[in-house]
Amino acid sequence: MVEEQLAARGIGDPAVLRVMGALPRERFLPPEMEENAYDDTALPIGHGQTISQPWIVARMTEVLDLPGWAVRHPGRPVAVLDVGTGSGYQAAVLAAIGARVTSIERDPELAERAARTLASLGLSVRSVVGDGSLGYPPDAPYAGIVVAAAGPAIPPPLVEQLAPGGRLVLPVGPPGYQELTVAWREDGELRTRTLGGCTFVPLVGRHGTDPGREG
Ligand code: SAH
Fold first, then answer.
1. What's the predicted TM-score (pTM) here?
2. Tens digits of per-residue pLDDT, 122-132?
3. What percent of the chain has pLDDT over 90?
4. Which of 17, 22, 23, 103 is placed for a possible disulfide with 85 were both Cys, Cβ 3.0 to 4.6 Å?
5. Burial (CB count <10 Å: 0-12, 13-18, 19+), residue 122
6. Smallest Cα–Cα separation from 2: which of 55, 51, 41?
7. Which domains does the chain have, with CATH numbers?
8. Which residues have CB under 8 Å from 62's CB, separation 6+?
9. Which residues sit with their C-beta closer than 6 Å to ligand 1?
């Protein structure tokens, strides 16, 4: 997976490659999906949700440039917010590269299952149940925020909860097709850059795709 799907397709961050090579991805999947754990796709994890494709997880992690932030802010914890815990795999990658991770999920059962998986691997992640489109102010500001569900626009609370020099990465667009987008603040303004097309499940919440929808 690391060589063929990640390194050969432009993932260069050595910590990301090392950690994704070492983490047992099958532990984040329902038993019937385990044999597909290293496939080059997103996979169903139940409750209509998915674990993201490995390349997407790697790209979103790399683009946060947490090593760069750590160098510019010596001695500060590298706090990261993971919105849409799902299986917990993205949170695991972030924790394993040394970030102090808060992960928020709206579905209590998925959140609990992910928290158990993370704990069983000895990974320390703060698991929160709630609407991640509002961010999670108690642990802000964040050096990085990664969102694994798609809404029509960048949720303002997430921008507000970014630390100076921090980056936000998220899919932006309608259901079915989004642009993977990186956002950061520069001279008091929000700047963005797009990384290409992608497809994520909907971000359901106050600043999400369909606030009224359940499930
Ligand atoms: N990062 C996950 C991907 C999970 S898919 C992984 O590595 O497995 C996206 C998740 O976002 C789903 O579990 C869905 O329930 C959750 N989600 C959708 N809208 C949300 C919201 N407003 N707040 C928190 N979680 C949300």
1. 0.97
2. 999 999 999 99
3. 96
4. 103
5. exposed
6. 55
7. 2-198 (3.40.50.150)
8. 11, 12, 13, 16
9. 49-52, 83-84, 86-87, 89-90, 104-107, 110, 131-133, 148-149, 201, 203-205, 208
